[in-house]
Give the backbone structure.
Amino acid sequence: MKNVTIHEIAKALNVNSSTVSRALNDSDRVTAKTKRKVLEKAKEMGYQRNMLASNLRRKKSNTIGVVVPRISRHFFSSTIAGIEETAYKLGFNVIICQSLEELEKEELIIENLIANRVDGILISVSMGTKKGEHLANCLNNRIPVVFFDRHLEGFPDMGKVLIDDQLGAYRATEHLIQKGCKKIGHFSGPKSLLIYKNRLEGYKMALKNYHIPYDESYVLTSKLMKEDGLEMAKKILKEHSDLDGLFCSNDTSAVGAFGYFKTIGKRVPEDIAIVGFSNEPFSALTEPSLTTIDQSGEEIGKAACTLLLKHIASGNTLITNETVILNPKLIERGSSQRQTATIF
Amino acid sequence: MKNVTIHEIAKALNVNSSTVSRALNDSDRVTAKTKRKVLEKAKEMGYQRNMLASNLRRKKSNTIGVVVPRISRHFFSSTIAGIEETAYKLGFNVIICQSLEELEKEELIIENLIANRVDGILISVSMGTKKGEHLANCLNNRIPVVFFDRHLEGFPDMGKVLIDDQLGAYRATEHLIQKGCKKIGHFSGPKSLLIYKNRLEGYKMALKNYHIPYDESYVLTSKLMKEDGLEMAKKILKEHSDLDGLFCSNDTSAVGAFGYFKTIGKRVPEDIAIVGFSNEPFSALTEPSLTTIDQSGEEIGKAACTLLLKHIASGNTLITNETVILNPKLIERGSSQRQTATIF
DNA sequence: ATAATTAATACAATCGATTGTATTAATTGT
DNA sequence: ACAATTAATACAATCGATTGTATTAATTAT
């Protein structure tokens, strides 16, 4: 069975293919009656518009490319959910690609997205991405780029959607203080990553604001795996048996600490209140459930996609350093629900 | 800056665009010297091949469409990872779409994939998908379809990659028996879904094989949320205080049961051993960690993609009911590690 | 040295939809 | 009723790459 094109329809109806095209696109240059006839015939013949041809002619693909390090990470998949929802509403398709944290693959992906003439690109760069020539190349091809979450410095012509890590950490720490904690520890991550530096800053700032002295020995650094959490919990308790609150830079390490506290009979949250960071899906499932900071991947995705589509719609006036900073949200759960110390 | 096409390159080098095209495609109809010249010029001019034009002409998009209910579910995102890896190796692009469990959206997606002339479609149908006209329509357009995980009955011309749920459940139950459990409960899901029926069957079969009488009252049914797990745990213990093993049809409900057992002082695994199903990322993080059945999304994705690409490569000889059934794997963790009862 | 063969490149049609311009048909005004 | 205007449709070029066929150049054979 041959592929049905507008030309077949035109022939069958004895009209010109341009009329068919206009009818299918609901142009006002064609009568309602003709439209009806065309639509009918199209359905009858099982016509499926060829987007390749359409896109080629219009020089628009109505498609945006999304590049993330790894699709199976919850944060990214929820980001994608947000992007998809937004794009979908405006009739855009989404091509999703994963760099697997490798610059080389990321470069290939970008090359490919350009070749496919996407209308724009959303990217959260890989850990291996130090330089951004491949991204600059997008702009050369008049394809706007918006970073979300992980971004590169020095690209003023690209939009950015970031989360305020410092604020998130501040809120987490403040929450612990408001729950009556006086001796609050902090598990930090590799200082090479900006997010962990910012979270540490937020922690410090909250302490300062509430007149709690900052003590370096309350801050431990690791890769924040579950085992690290356990080890750090052990270590911090040995040094500070009076610990009554803990703010972890991610949920995984919080779960590790959790486990250790339980084995030695410390109760959570009665003896030690815990707040994590990220709101991983499992943090609602722990016992007690884990208070944490929600980065809302969905929100980030929506914001990034909105920013990108706005610029596409504006006919690609280059994005001059437009940066959206989102506020993370505290998700209060069991691990921090201790009776507030009565002050009066 | 104008978009560079093969024609610009041709003009610049004073050759014909067909020669440029062939040079770029490394055809043997053009001299090595000319190829070199063309490649050089192409790079110099910043040429980016227009895939839309190429695909239109070749009537191939080198792209496959993937449709899943929800990208943020770990199982699906790991499936996609497997698909991507396989497709990528063979030079195929992947368009990922989510139906959000709605037939209507799924239909739109399929429509769109056909319009974009994808070379094939991989789909795990939505819960709302009862009929498959939209999928039949793919075959009408000579686009092969392969189901993975969730499939529709009555489509002999589409490939299928499934997991043997019954076997998985059998292994889970057998494992509990081998760990010395005698009174094994089972949390089942909505019986409308085949997977839960099959898991129940596997549970029964294991009991039978090991001469343990099947008792209906040891099987509870729910939607398998965390709260359901907690409730069911409470209920089953009330009726059967001698419960010493529990096989849950998913990890989430297992975590719920977990929590309840702990609050009433039942130890896991010493008093009650637990096995879940799915190997969600959080199941390695619970305390103790959860023994479970791994469905290996990656494997399924790879298998499905391989099957599809095989048929695309074969020039779309229709897939006559090729079905691949994968074996789930038992992941032994803490929640089932009790000393094996000495028999002698 | 010329015919025969092969290699290298040029020409032109094609993929299917879109769109500016031209043409014909229908409507309105006077 | 005829010109003027507007509505509806037809024509033809275009998007950029591919590919079968034709042509020219280079090589080999006789």
Remarks:
- Chain A touches chain B through 49 residues (CB under 8 Å).
- Chain A has a mean pLDDT of 92.
